[in-house]
Fold each of these.
Amino acid sequence: MARILLYSAVVATGGAEVALGNLVGCAGGYELHVGGVSPDVLDTIAGAAPGVRRHVAGGGPVACAGLLRRVRPDLLQVNLEVPWGGAAMLAAGLAQPGLRVVAVQHMAVRTTRLATWLRTRALALRLDAHVAVSADAARRVEDFYALGRGSVQVIHNGVPAPVDAGQAGSGGLLIGSVGRLDRVKGHDVLVRALAKVPDARAAIVGAGAERDALQRLATELGVADRVRLPGRSDRVAGLLAGFDVYCQPSRYEGLGLALIEAMLAGLPCVASRVGGIPEVLGDCGLLVPPDDPDALADALAVLEADPALRASLGTRARRRARAEFGVARMAGRYQELWARVLASPRSPRVRVPAPKP
């Protein structure tokens, strides 16, 4: 049985690590190990699969090489929150004779530092396989690193079985949003939009550096009594069941794991037209321009005034999410990838990108 090491270099759990945990809990037929720098993150990743071995190691080149010597995997898969986030482990893996190396891009954020670009492009050219979680992220990575169109495979993240959405009860439309409190998530746009939808309330679930700024903004706009910031929660499914509408106002999103969870819960969704979000939502929700509180407020007002539309969009969103973004589908595609990479002849470690059409 082939041994696979799934590695994450982050120190705090985000959507990329949740998705990796979903994969670990479902993929079979391989001896899986998880490695990283944070015990808490590894606990999250391996929580659904207690038998999976966990390996904590520093994120530097020496520690990464030592981890590979201890585990001796046949294939190394590195979860990249940003393209340069796991460079030390990718380099260590590529230095191991015979080890197959795969990178998974979750956020196709670009760097302006030439040295970082050169180093990470050199690594990308030597990978056995390169994966992105959305077509948008794949195109961004291909173009940024000049890898050639079609060189990055798309495998969507998967989410476990759905829950049923409920109703928020009295007090006006309850708009939910889940994600770390970071500017890229655009929660400030939702707060500004809420000021233009007077009967609605919002619950923004998550923790992060933007919490105080969001509270100040809500006070300045006179909506502090209609905005709740309950912090991070491990009971997202239960919280989704209390929302009337789900909002993902991100300025950029590689795919949008929380959006998929909301769709699986049967919630009508409003989201920014950025990154992988249109790919996820399709025509099963309302898309608005990013950083546009007026457009977001208009969309929320439409849903507030039309319960039948909310019900229709929620049903369609649930159907789409079940068909396209289930955990079993994701795990199956990774298993196919691993089998193909392990069975293929060892390719040269330096590749020439294919020309763009």
Amino acid sequence: MKLKANRRRAAPPEIAAGGLRLDAFVPYRLSVLTNTISSTLARRYATRFGVSIPQWRVMAVLGETPGQSVNELAARTRMDKVSVSRAVAGLVRSGRVLRRADPADGRRCELRLSAKGRQIYRQIVPMAHHYQSELLGRLDPVERRTLERLIGHLDEIARSLAADDRGEGE
């Protein structure tokens, strides 16, 4: 889907009046929603497995695509490299992730789930699916499809704006 360039609209009255009502500011609302969801999942994962949200995100990516580097994990999860490095270090210390030098490029380290990490991953995946079902189960099918479409579209727009900010959009 191609984004329409410079689709400008008048600012909503609550913003145009010079103030910012947080309850009407979509980036803030999405951040609060994400934090609410993440903290709920974090409690569930921490209680049962001692895994933080950044660690789970790393494990989820490695469970799906083993052999990633820290830089690739940071790009995939959109977490900063420091957070990813800390999560990886904790997972390596706990024996959940294995690190080895890439045979093709000694400067790059490949990361994989260990047997212990794969065991935890296999237990968390159903929990994650269950939580998503709990969260989305109260939406009707049309609302769910609309939400998926809107999330995809907002992600595309946000990426385009980020590229513009980096000077890549020209």
